[in-house]
Amino acid sequence: MTKLHRIVVGHNFFPDGEVALRAATVLAERADAALYILHVVEPYPLYQKIRFPTLPAEAMLEEVVLKMRAQLTELATGQEFARLHVETAARVGKPFVELIKACRNWRGNLIVVGASTRSEGRFLGSTGERVLRKAPVPVLIAKRALPVGPITVLIPIDFSPCSKQAAEEGLALVRGVGGRAIFLHVLDIRYIYPAAYGAEAVLLPSVAPEDLEPDWQDF
């Protein structure tokens, strides 16, 4: 992502979806990016279709989709979106699949989803977790609304090629919306062959932050 120009946001009309939409709107305004708001209606489970074979499930789902499309269209005409290019869609499917498909088809370069508070004991909520693992673009898990002023992005690195890619994405975000980036490397001092393995613990030689200056420069 060299520039933030197309943001896909999942909106489920729950509080976490509202937070995701507000965060995406703030980013879109600051980066002059377009916004794609998607609501996904999950299909009925298979066991319900088997138990109630005469239930017009497909027709009922399509009716829900039409209502959601109308709500999204009305939402997009609000004053808070007046300065933005906004597209909306509602469809049937698995939320994480449809979000990723929409991002690919629309050539989005950021997906924003909320962190569900309804999934006790789960990591982020099933949709957020799956999007985070499978999306081909950066993903923002919005846990609260973004501040009005410049943002601060914390970028943890370990000098690896993977963290270099993460740093590039973080810097692109900061350049797009304004703010500052803070790079962080944590010295992980561990024992080799601790007593739990039946051997005497050996402490690694101590490393001071200034010893990493060449690594920083190379990075």
Provide structural commentary.
There is one protein chain. It contains 7 helices and 9 strands. The chain is an alpha/beta fold. The strands form 3 sheets. The chain has a 5-stranded parallel beta sheet. α6 (161-177) links the parallel β6 (151-156) and β7. α4 crosses α5. 24% of the residues are buried.
Short structural summary:
The chain is of the alpha/beta class and 219 residues long. The chain has helices at 15-31, 46-51, 57-76, 95-106, 126-134, 161-177, 213-218; strands at residues 6-10, 34-41, 86-92, 110-114, 139-142, 151-156, 179-184, 191-192, 202-203. It has two domains: 6-146, Rossmann fold, CATH 3.40.50.620; 151-219, no CATH class.
Number of helices: 7
CATH H-level name of the largest domain... which superfamily?
Answer: HUPs
CATH architecture of the largest domain: 3-Layer(aba) Sandwich
Number of DSSP-assigned strands: 9
How are the strands of the largest sheet arranged? 3-2-1-4-5
The percent of residues in helical segments reads 25-40%
CATH topology of the largest domain: Rossmann fold
User: What structural class do you assign from the helix and strand content?
Assistant: alpha/beta
| SSE topology string | EHEHHEHEHEEHEEEH
**How big a fraction of the residues is strand?**
15-25%
